[in-house]
Structures are given as structure tokens and as C-alpha cells.
């Protein structure tokens, strides 16, 4: 005869040690309470360490292995040369007064000349009889132009190819001239910005705070972040909180942006749109990079406003 359910449960209870049910209940409560406490505001959370954010002078050179120093410092090579002292103007001697020119005496009036007497008019010759007209010679007929030799298809193709090559070369030269003009404008803007960025440590060498190399310059990541942030415009009253976005950017060795994408959006459309506009303005850096590179950059509203 099979055991009833109640008898089996009584047998199972006799096997357990006393207090087992209490331990099982306490364990279940702990597993429920721990996640609630972790996500509550009273539970202390440790934020991951972020790289330091600092100002970067855009006139400094981009290097692969920057030395220890300050990124906002200006090297002696890029400092503007002092203006030469203006020489005091020498006194100009007074101009000599012109001497008085003697006035010549008035000429004496000449006596009036005698009037010429009128000459007698000559007799008019008698009109000649008109001669008979000679027949005009016939004009030679104009020669017909000789027909030009026909141009072959091969010559037409060669001419067309040559014209396309000349057109492509002209367009390439025009694009190169426009690129140089943009670079000159960006360098001028960076030079103007360098006058406003001041290093808190006077006489500090150009480098990075965590630099361990031997090259005087700044890292490419810090330079690209600073360049984009200088193109960024947004009022602190337009966005609340502290949104943060992470972007992947790919630049070639000429400092031209190839493509970008958001690895993590901030969740605030106004802040994300302002970043997109700043990135589009920063499609061309004001100096080349040591090599083509991709950058993972985190843009934080509070850090960008504190600049």
C-alpha cells in the first residue's frame, strides 16, 4: 500500500535538522533584499575612473609619444615673435624757401605790317569732254575651299580623353587650393585661440600630464576632443541633468574625418544633436595626424561647460 502524501511529508520533516526551515527562509529573504538595496539611492556606488579632462592648445604638434608636461602650454617655436621696437621718427629739416625770380621787362610793340594787295584771279580752264568708259574687266571667281580631311574615331577618342584628363587635373588643383585655404583658416583660428588659453604652470614644457614619451607635443585623442569641443555650441539652459555620450571617430593621416557613429547615446536628443553639429564642423583638423586612427571619445555636458 502506497504511503499517503501526509505521511511522506512527515517522514521528510523528520530527516531535516531542526531550524532548517528558518535558515531557508532567511536565505530567501536575503536574496530578495540585496538587489533592492544595491539599486536603492542609499547604497554607495563607486563610479569607474575616467581619464582627466584638460584644455589643449591647438597650435601644439600632435605626436605619438608625448612627454610629461602641460597640453595647454605653448612651445617656444610656436610663440609669436615680439614686435620690433618702432624707431622714433627723425625731425624733418624745414624746406628752403624759393628765391625770388626777377620779372623780365615787357617787349616793345612791333610796328603794323602793310596789308597785301589782292592778286588778280586766274582764268578758269574750259571743261574737258568726257572720255568714253572702258569696259571693266571680269572679277575672278573665288576658289572653293578644299574639304578638310575627316577626323577618325580614334583621334576623337584620344582628344576626348585628353580633355577629360585636363578637366580632372583642374578640378584636383581647385580642390587642393580649397583644402589649403581651409587649413590656413583653421591654423589662424588655432593661433588666435592659443592667445586665450593660459597654462597655470609658467614655463612648463609642452606634453601630457600622464606622458611617458620623449616627444614635445600632445596626444591625438586629446587634440581631437579639444578640436570638436571648440566647435560645440549649446546653452546650459537648454539641457537639464548631466547627459553623456560616447562616439567612435575615424580620421585619416591628413586629419580628415572618414566616418563616425555613436557607441552610446546620451538619451537627450538636444545634446546629441549639438554633438553631431560639432563633429560635422570638425571634419578637417588644422594639422595632419601621425597616422590614420580611430578614437573612442566620451563627451560629458558638465565637463564641456566647465571649459
Summarize the structure.
The chain has 307 residues and is mainly alpha-helical.
What does this entry look like structurally?
The protein has 307 residues and is mainly alpha-helical. It has a domain at 221-305: Fusion Protein Consisting Of Minor Coat Protein, Glycine Rich Linker, Tola, And A His Tag, Chain: A, Domain 2, CATH 3.30.1150. It has helices spanning 5-15, 20-38, 153-196, 220-231, 269-281, 301-305; strands at residues 244-251, 257-264, 293-300. Strands 2-1-3 form a 3-stranded antiparallel beta sheet. Helix 4 (220-231) crosses helix 5. The longest helix has 44 residues, at 153-196. Residues 80-84 have low confidence and may be disordered.
List the helices and strands and how they pair.
Layout: H1 5-15, H2 20-38, H3 153-196, H4 220-231, E1 244-251, E2 257-264, H5 269-281, E3 293-300, H6 301-305
Antiparallel strand pairs: 1-2, 1-3
What general outline do the C-alpha atoms trace? elongated
Radius of gyration, taken over Cα atoms and rounded to an integer in Å: 48 Å
Q: Count of helices?
A: 6
Provide the CATH topology of the domain at 221-305: Fusion Protein Consisting Of Minor Coat Protein, Glycine Rich Linker, Tola, And A His Tag, Chain: A, Domain 2
SSE string, helix = H, strand = E? HHHHEEHEH
Largest sheet: 3 strands, antiparallel
Strand percentage, roughly? 5-15%
CATH class designation of the domain at 221-305? Alpha Beta
Q: What is the terminal-to-terminal distance?
A: 85 Å
Share of helical residues? 25-40%
Structural class: mainly alpha
Overall pLDDT score: 75
Count of extended strands: 3
Record the strand order, biggest sheet.
2-1-3
Amino acid at each position: 500500500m502506497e504511503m499517503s502524501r501526509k505521511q511522506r511529508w512527515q517522514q521528510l520533516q523528520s530527516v531535516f535538522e531542526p531550524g532548517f526551515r528558518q535558515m531557508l527562509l532567511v536565505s530567501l529573504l536575503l536574496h530578495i533584499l540585496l538587489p533592492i538595496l544595491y539599486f536603492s539611492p542609499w547604497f554607495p556606488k563607486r563610479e569607474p575612473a575616467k581619464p582627466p579632462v584638460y584644455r589643449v592648445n591647438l597650435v601644439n604638434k600632435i605626436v605619438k609619444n608625448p612627454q610629461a608636461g602641460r597640453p595647454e602650454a605653448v612651445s617656444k617655436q610656436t610663440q609669436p615673435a615680439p614686435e620690433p621696437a618702432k624707431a622714433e621718427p627723425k625731425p624733418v629739416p624745414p624746406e628752403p624757401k624759393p628765391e625770388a625770380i626777377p620779372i623780365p621787362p615787357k617787349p616793345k610793340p612791333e610796328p603794323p605790317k602793310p596789308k597785301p594787295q589782292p592778286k588778280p584771279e586766274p582764268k578758269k580752264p574750259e571743261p574737258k569732254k568726257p572720255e568714253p568708259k572702258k569696259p571693266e574687266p571680269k572679277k575672278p571667281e573665288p576658289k572653293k575651299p578644299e574639304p578638310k580631311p575627316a577626323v577618325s574615331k580614334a583621334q576623337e577618342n584620344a582628344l576626348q580623353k585628353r580633355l577629360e584628363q585636363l578637366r580632372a587635373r583642374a578640378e584636383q588643383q581647385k580642390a587642393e587650393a580649397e583644402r589649403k585655404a581651409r587649413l590656413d583658416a583653421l591654423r589662424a583660428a588655432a593661433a588666435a585661440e592659443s592667445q586665450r588659453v593660459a597654462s597655470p604652470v609658467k614655463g612648463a614644457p609642452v606634453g601630457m600630464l600622464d606622458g611617458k614619451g620623449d616627444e614635445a607635443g600632445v596626444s591625438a585623442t586629446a587634440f581631437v576632443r579639444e578640436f570638436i569641443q571648440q566647435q560645440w555650441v549649446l546653452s546650459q539652459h537648454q539641457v537639464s541633468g548631466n547627459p553623456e555620450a560616447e562616439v567612435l571617430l575615424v580620421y585619416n593621416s591628413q586629419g580628415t574625418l572618414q566616418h563616425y557613429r555613436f557607441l552610446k547615446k546620451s538619451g537627450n536628443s538636444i545634446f546629441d544633436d549639438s554633438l553631431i553639429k560639432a563633429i560635422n564642423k570638425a571634419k578637417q583638423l588644422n594639422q595632419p595626424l601621425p597616422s590614420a586612427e580611430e578614437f573612442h571619445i566620451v563627451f560629458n555636458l558638465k565637463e564641456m561647460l566647465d571649459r
